[in-house]
Amino acid sequence: MAVDDAGSTWKKRKKRSGAESTSKTRDVESARSAAAEVKNEVEEENSEEEGDFGTVVRINTDVLDCSICHEPFRPPIYECQNGHAVCSPCRLSHSGKCLVCSPPIDLIRCLALERVVKSVQISCINARYGCDTNLSYSDRETHHKICNYTPCTCPVSACAFKGSSISLSDHFQSHHENSAVKFMYGYCCRVAWSQIESPFLVLLGPDRRLFLLLNNNDTTRGSFLSMICISPRNEESNFEYELSVGAKTTLKLKASVESTTEWKGVYPTNTILFVPNGFCSSNRVSVKVSTKKCKPH
């Protein structure tokens, strides 16, 4: 009786193992079939007109990411005989072996998936804010870092506006124009405000670009002054500013304007001008500000 029970248990385990193996095989075949279908659809679109994507293809973008590092695939792409695909850096860091399989097996080039990755194009994540760039899936992160349409938020308290730097300028002109100090590039203007009244002043350039003169105040020590521009980060080297405080004894700072798309209460700029409380009168700090455009590097 014990022998029969053992035999029955062994048969059940064998059946379960066979079912799991069949399931894994079906999963791999299904993944390959999906990749082939996407490849065929993309090729059909390309055959209609070079560079013209007339049909929308929906695809789970997970299949376009490496299963190890989860970064977007870039050719060369490798796979094992069981269909597990990895990117080139992960292949090199793991001695050319598949980590999903046990034991690890060798990897070979996956030319079909490479063609799919090269063919798939997506819209920029900032399309709703005006960017009409179509880019390859593998280049999305690179483009997003330099996209001029990265949304900027309005710095005015309780205002929820969010849009491109151009639309932000239009919004500010329409709704908050009286909240800003206007200035001309290359000319000096004097501004003064309470050390504890507001953490920043909005400066509006002649091209309607928004700058924030920041005052990170320490009531026991003084003010930490700096300037930022509300714009995509790739524009941060286009402007220089100079701050000057005091008459007989003068404190000065000259630096490049850093950029941010959102004011979050405190911005850790790389350069600051420290103004001790002794330079302030009636808790007000008076600053000469000059901003100028620089030639792109």
Main sheet makeup: 6 strands, mixed
Q: Residue-averaged pLDDT, rounded?
A: 77
Structural domain count: 3
CATH superfamily of the largest domain: Apoptosis, Tumor Necrosis Factor Receptor Associated Protein 2, Chain A
Question: What share of the residues lie within helices?
Answer: 25-40%
Order of helical and strand elements: HEEHEHEEHEEHEEEEEEEEEE
Termini Cα gap: 86 Å
- Shape descriptor reads elongated
Residues in β-strands, percent = 25-35%
CATH structural architecture of the largest domain: Sandwich
- Number of helices, where a helix is a run of at least 4 consecutive DSSP H or I residues: 5
Q: Would you count the extended β strands for me?
A: 17
Category by helix and strand content = alpha+beta
CATH topology of the largest domain: Apoptosis, Tumor Necrosis Factor Receptor Associated Protein 2, Chain A
pLDDT under 50 segments (min length 5)?
1-28, 34-51
- The CATH first-level class of the largest domain comes to Mainly Beta
**Global Rg:** 30 Å
GO molecular function, one term: zinc ion binding
Enzyme class: transferase
Keywords: Metal-binding, Transferase, Ubl conjugation pathway, Zinc, Zinc-finger
Pathway: Protein modification; protein ubiquitination
